[in-house]
Design goal:
It contains 16 helices and six strands. By secondary structure, the chain is mainly alpha-helical.
Length: 406
């Protein structure tokens, strides 16, 4: 069973590390790890992840549109998903002006999808389908009480939810799936990839301090910052994001914070943040061995957070089903569905592969939804436990530990 790496740094730290033989001229570099994620060159910040902040905001807007029964259409939501610069797809003028969009970066990492365009397109189409089905199946039945085989609304004890004929909230499957297919995949398998960080002359230019034209950062520094932006890009204070971890967006930031709330995992937020700081400091120092060690820590811990939260929602739903409240479990199960889907984008640093493959994830989702037409309406507590154990077996925590997260 894989034991994740960890690191704990609480203040500015000076570290020394020996680099590999092919890093001539960078033997025993000194790492200056700042208290916050602040790095500068000649008095100006070198940190930039505006593109990630933009895509997080776009994903938030799309998730909201999936419940905008009065105004959203399939065309309008798809326009947000595939946004073209200048099109008035969002209420935010800055988003409309942006040349970024969400769909193009879904399942688009170099390490996982550079040679697998067919799988990438299939994953993109999955999110297209969530949008289309939410509008065509759920929207028309928004005022109908859902029953097995019929989409509509349900009350889960706190608010009204809107589900498909099989009990799935497409909007939750979309949001929690984007957490994996966009944020996690781009972070772990693209911007932290050696293939991206060291592409072309990146390493030589970084070592020599050669910055991108018109910018104050090296290409390698910027790539690392872009990975950072996919978890902290919407933070109130991006340089000190753990001050409000869990409060700043509905994606990785929120759920790393939720996992960190539990005593069994209450160092995970600090571990991820410190690994990002240390890796960035290593890039500044030209210490590429330490850089890659920190990337491994981030991969292990972010992956673990996704697995923990998936099991948490499964187990919360199990409690409701056991109490006879089947429909009350559907919201948690829909969130669990998205987190399980996201496991195929995780990264085990010992194998450089997902903790669960796409085929294994599909198998778990098939178990969750059952073989019949009723889906979650027929789900049993025994099946929930079997899925939970299958996930936990790939990590270093138990189902009981994950289930206790508040």
């Amino acid at each position: 069973m894989f034991k994740p790496l960890s690191i704990l740094l609480t203040a500015t730290v000076i570290l020394s590390s020996c680099s590999s033989d092919d890093d001539a001229g960078n033997t025993n570099p000194t790492l200056e790890v700042p208290e916050n994620y602040t790095f500068s060159r000649e008095g100006s910040s070198t940190v930039d992840f505006n593109g990630q902040t933009t895509r997080i905001a776009m994903a938030e807007a799309i998730s909201s549109s999936l419940l905008d029964f009065d105004n959203a259409t399939e065309a309008s939501v798809m326009a947000q998903f595939t946004h073209t610069a200048g099109d008035p797809d969002f209420e935010d003028a800055a988003l409309n002006a942006s040349d970024k969009n969400v769909r193009s970066k879904v399942a688009a990492s170099v390490d996982y999808f550079n040679t697998n365009a067919v799988q990438s397109q299939a994953i993109k189409s999955t999110f297209d389908d969530y949008i289309a089905k939410q509008i065509s199946e759920v929207f028309p039945n928004q005022n109908i009480v859902a029953i097995a085989g019929t989409a509509g609304q349900i009350a889960d004890g706190t608010r009204t939810r809107y589900v498909s004929a099989t009990g799935l909230e497409y909007n939750q499957a979309f949001a929690k799936g984007i957490l994996g297919a966009l944020m996690t995949d781009q972070m772990l398998n693209n911007y932290l990839s050696v293939a991206v960080l060291d592409e072309g002359d990146n390493r030589a230019n970084n070592t020599a301090g050669i910055t991108e034209e018109g910018s104050n950062y090296t290409t390698m520094e910027h790539k690392w910052d872009e990975a950072y932006g996919y978890i902290y890009g919407a933070s109130q204070d991006p340089a000190n994001p753990n001050a409000t971890i869990g409060e700043d967006d509905g994606f990785l930031n929120e759920y790393v914070g939720r996992v960190n709330d539990d005593a069994d995992f209450n160092t995970i937020a600090e571990t991820i943040f410190n690994a990002f700081k240390t890796g960035r400091a290593a890039i500044v120092a030209g210490d590429y061995v330490t850089r890659d060690e920190q990337a491994a820590i981030i991969r292990a811990e972010v992956s673990k957070a996704i697995a923990v939260r998936g099991i948490y929602y499964l187990q919360q739903a199990k409690t409701k089903i056991a109490a006879g409240n089947q429909t009350g479990a559907f919201h948690g199960l829909s969130e669990a569905y998205g987190f399980i889907y996201s496991l195929q984008f995780t990264r085990n640093p010992q194998t450089d592969a997902p903790y669960l493959s796409a085929a294994e994830v599909t198998g778990l989702l098939d178990q969750l939804m059952g073989d019949g037409a009723n889906g979650l309406w027929d789900l049993t507590t025994e099946t929930i436990d079997a899925i939970s154990e299958s996930i936990a077996a790939e990590f270093d925590f138990t189902v009981a530990q994950a289930a206790s997260v508040d």
